[in-house]
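Notebook entry, structure prediction.
Reason for the run: the old model in the group folder had no record of what sequence produced it. Starting over properly, with the input documented here first.
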Amino acid sequence: MQSIVIENISKSYGDVKALNNINIEVYKGEIFGIIGPDGAGKTTLFEILTTLQNSDIGNACVDGMDVQKEHRDIRNIVGYMPGRFSLYQDLSVIENLEFFARIFGTTVEEGYDLIKDIWVQIEPFKKRYAGKLSGGMKQKLALCCALIHQPKILFLDEPTTGVDPVSRKEFWDMLKNLKQRGITIFVSTPYMDEAFLCDRVALIQDGGIMKIDTPESVVSSFDRKLYDIKAGNIHNLLKVLREWENIHSCNAFGQSVHITLKDESQGSDYILDYLQKHSIEAIYIKEIVATIEDCFMELMSIRDENNN
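New structure, fully documented this time:
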């Protein structure tokens, strides 16, 4: 059963096309991730689905309700956590929670069962102003406020951006627990590694969906040999590799470079020989399994080739 259906959604701001013919189905009780960098169109899509703005073209339904015609009903059954901390910073933790409960015509007591596992972590700070909380605590408070009216569907727009790794892990553990309660979770993130915490993902760039599948299937669809290369000077390494006529793709990954070759009959020794001939020193080469980020970069390359 579908919780969210998005059909041919497009949205522009002047000459900028934020969303371009988006089609997605999200099933009840799954964690569905929208994976892409800043500016890819994630927030615009979330605002359309949570009835904060309308699309130019296309339509969407949330829990069977039209986002334009039944927006008031939709707002009662969804929880929304925007990318920026949007709670009242000059109210205390408990005052924020009570305020959002009243907005939805409920009480903290009525919604407590759903938030109790999260609330016990921030209750010791319940009298502290929200603006004085750490990033991780703000995140947990915002999630409690989004859940206090016991929504069927939870929209989380980049909820872990700028949060420390420990808090990121804790947050995803909370989402898994909420999924077990039957809540559908629609979450966006710029962190490619978080894709594997979702049941299915949509990879988005420049307002367009490049692929929708399980994270495992996205990675297994990468059908080229991939090499991880390090050297004493990464800038020289990148320059030499990008000038090589046999390079199919070449992308920097931290202190490494990931490449694929046009001629895949050749291997590590062939790459080593080329680099040594071009005075690259302290070379490390290893064939590796692709990550979601590698797949994302490959899909971008294919898209760009098709558009040219």
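Summary: The mean pLDDT is 93.
The old model has been moved to the deprecated folder.
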